[in-house]
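Question (not urgent): is this output format expected?
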Amino acid sequence: MIISASRRTDIPAFYADWFINRLHQGFVYVKNPRNPRRIAKVVLNPEVVDCIVFWTKNPRPMLDRLNIIDALGYRYYFQFTLTPYDRQVETGLPAKAEIMETFRHISDKIGSHRVVWRYDPVIISSDFSVQYHLAEFDRLCGKLAAYTQKCVFSFIDLYAKIRERLKPFAVCEINTLHMNQLAQGFAQIAKRHKLTLATCSETIDFASYGIAHAACIDQGLLEHILGCSLCAKKDPNQRPACQCIESIDIGAYNCCSHGCVYCYATTSENMVCQAMRGHDPHSPLLDQLRGDEIITDRRANSLKVPHISLF
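Got this back:
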């Protein structure tokens, strides 16, 4: 079983204590986002949890807890989002210099292959032109290339609630010309910095530029980290273009205060404030329990392929 922590919120940034408490307790409750009265109880122990994939923009609060995770016997890697946008777009993040320092620190601690850099999402506007992205991507590559082996990027999906938030920024629909200009330029820059480049959940094919389709819950990387094969299936709950294998996400929506205007996982600032005020680091559920939930056990098995000796 792969634990995703989490596509829905930044657990390393805001819920590190809660996460460590869940590992010590050996289980976590996960609310069904489509039916909040349905809760799955997921067992957490290294016998069934093959790896944990952290998604974060600021893992600094988790840094001094990595030794605890290591001592408990869990393996993990980070999907670390670092963009060039300022606090008009990502209102709650620390200064980018501080985030880059954290990126370097965590890479030094766990290895560059276990820190995947995400330049995500790519937004096109009068302030964020194609040339802006090419220049900023080159600058960030210069800062980060020694501390990661792979960069994943994707173009913004303008869902209705996101489109409304982005109106003050005069964001453009990204067309095929923009995509190809960026892909070709990014590929040349990444090659110069010796970085592997891939797209996340994009249907457009950039193979001619040497850009692959990424899997963020990546079977190849997982097998490299674990040193064994996995018997895994493509995750049917993600978008059709997503290449990820199956995982269990233990996060909750509307629980992140980074304040990114492009975020699909938050509905309103009020909902986020309410959820974070009510958070209990000792609760089995990241979100708040109402008391009328139906809790069922979620079946969990290791995906590791056992080594069979012929002698």
